[in-house]
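Run folding on both entries below.
>entry_1
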Amino acid sequence: MKNALYWFSHDLRIVDNKALTICSRAQSLTCVYAIDDRLLQQDNYQCQYLGCKRWRFLHDCLVELHTALGEVNQGIKVLYGDTVAEISNIINQASIDTLIISRQFGFYELRILKAVIARNPDIDVIEVDNYTLYCSSDTPALIDKLPKQFTPFRHKASNFSVPRLEQQIDILPSSVIPYETSLVFPANLANQLTASNHSLTKFIGGERAASKQLTRFFENGHADHYKQTRNSLDGWDNSCKFSPWLASGSLSPRQVYWHLTQYQTEHGVNNSNEWIYVELLWREYFQWAALQLGKQLFKFRGRNKSKPLTSFYSERFVSWAQGNTAFPLVNAIMHELTETGYITNRSRQIAASCLVNELAMDWRFGAAFFQQHLIDYDVAVNWGNWQYIAGVGCDPRGGRHFNLDKQAVCFDPDATYTKKWLGNNVSITDSLDIADWPIA
């Protein structure tokens, strides 16, 4: 390996980065992060792939990563445009013979990678398991015969070990392409930042913030109450809040796993802290399922190939997206999502159930809307969970239909959360005012 190219993706960190260990063996190294210009365009579901709030978070991650790489003789160059063309230009410009990239799980991400390889057939490609607990090479029995439901996967996973954390690299080979002292972004991306209100979110992108949250969560003992509080609609300490950093790769699932293991060694295992491991396994399951499903992850019939009894009604979708449905709790959830880029797991389930069941909407429109707005968007987790709710995924019960009145009583009994995001404007939309309603 003479001239290596490290194509950063969902691995924006220095710590526990096996790809950097491999990169250290090259004679020269060039590091890039590619943003395809199609990500800012509207898709078939009237949404764009990369919303301004997620881009704000990724921007912060990249700026910090560039600084951290500078301390080990490296940096990062942000590419924008046609990803296949941009990566190919770098390969030619730097005479790259080896491409290093963390394993991709999304169908479209893999398609772009395959197109790069097809255009540059002479390069060697090293794919690194940097985004999951397990390595594909170590667990073929787990991955090749992936169960259709989570519980059998969970039982099988107990037979496999999680790799130890990678040692941090002290120095990396220099690049044949000079880096800017400060990270430079194209004008289109800079404009996206101005559309994002940074003050409404507590999440700060980057490895330092990820490490701080990881340490704080366990040091303050929140892990021992996790299972009891994780379904809350609000409150920073009620859940671990690792997901944005896991999605960007500023934090690895193995870091969380070994931190949890150390905590359990010192404080004991209970149902709450063990549930954090279960959530890591859910994330893991969705990754390998996405790899197995390919394009089927985005199909209306899902993995089960069973057609849902839903359709598309533009008025209903707009009302849901704008938080103007007949359900105040759902409206509050949608306002929090669009204003901050984050909602809790329970909130996501409530909003998704409303769209699929009460509004009888094609689940893919909801998945695409979440994709645009969530700062912790993960292709496998997002689309896998939406399939689950819609009854076309891995749920053995054939989907989930939440009683919205009961959800409000259980999780917002005094309407504190609803009033926080709607103020006193908690009136219910008259279902006869909209053309394709009433709602049953």
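>entry_2
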Amino acid sequence: MIADYLNQTATWKRTVGLNEYGEPITTSQTIKVRWEGKRRLVRDRQGQEVVSEARFFCLEEVQPGDIVEYGGREWPIIAVTEIPDLDGNIIYREVAC
């Protein structure tokens, strides 16, 4: 259903660990998204209210702390909301950056 609306692409940089300097080690994958440059207030992993500059919708299992590259900019993922269908299966994710 939502897959028809995912007409943009972004690069998902999944964090898989940290190097000896404490910097994230990532793997990259191109994903289909629906991107919206919409500012809103969201809660991060620690429960703090922070301003999100954009949001996007996708099917992949992105997580807070991962990075998405879109429009020539790297966007850290702040929060992820999983949207279930009536059977409880996750059908897509709404992601705040």
